[in-house]
Amino acid sequence: MRRTRGFSLIELLISLVLAALLMIAVMVALDMGFRAYRASAEQVSAGVQGRIIIERLQAMVRGGVDFGPLPSSPSETSIESDCLAIQMPEGDWVTLAWDATTSELTWTGTDGTHALLEGVTQALDSGGTLQPFRLDFHDGRWLMNATMDLVVEPELVTGLDLEGDQTPPLRFTGSARPRIAAWEGR
């Protein structure tokens, strides 16, 4: 009579432990991959939104007919502001404002106020903050150039070791001159 020998109980337990450790390692690697994907997707999404908003603001400045806020005196040629008011050709006013308490860029028009972009912190690496709008005027009244400078913090995924402690802020800048200023040769 021939006896075939199978695996002992200890050999089975060792193989189960090794398989479990291998599965845990695979699951940890997958989790880190999903977290890295989410972080990069959020950063890309914030980047696309920021670029679209800057381009739209530039188009609005180019097509606007009047602007605010105005400098406090006619001799003042440049101001930095947390808001920009634009009168559109049809006469409606649109106001873009940065709310530091909610970290939002808001849009106020005839239909009310809406959040345009979230995560706008305006925090610089040097520790200070900057205003999102720089307006250059001629004779203290006529807008010659508007510069938009937005610093946006993309949503952070906590505990992600692959990306470091934090995702760096995104900075979007754009500048536009109203067509009316170009046409009138100001």
Question: How would you portray this structure in words?
Answer:
- This protein has helices at residues 9-63, 179-183; strands at residues 66-68, 78-81, 83-87, 93-99, 104-109, 112-118, 133-138, 142-152, 170-176.
- The protein has 186 residues and is an alpha+beta fold.
- The protein has one domain (10-183).
- The strands form two sheets. It has a five-stranded antiparallel β-sheet, covered by helices on one side.
- Strand 7 (133-138) and strand 8 form a beta hairpin.
- The protein is rod-shaped.
**What is the number of independent domains?**
1
**Distance between the amino and carboxyl termini:** 109 Å
Q: Mind telling me the C-alpha Rg?
A: 28 Å
Q: What structural class do the secondary elements suggest? A: alpha+beta
How do the helices and strands line up, and which of them pair or pack?
Elements lengths: L8 H55 L2 E3 L9 E4 L1 E5 L5 E7 L4 E6 L2 E7 L14 E6 L3 E11 L17 E7 L2 H5 L3
Antiparallel strand pairs: 1-3, 2-7, 3-4, 4-5, 5-6, 7-8, 8-9
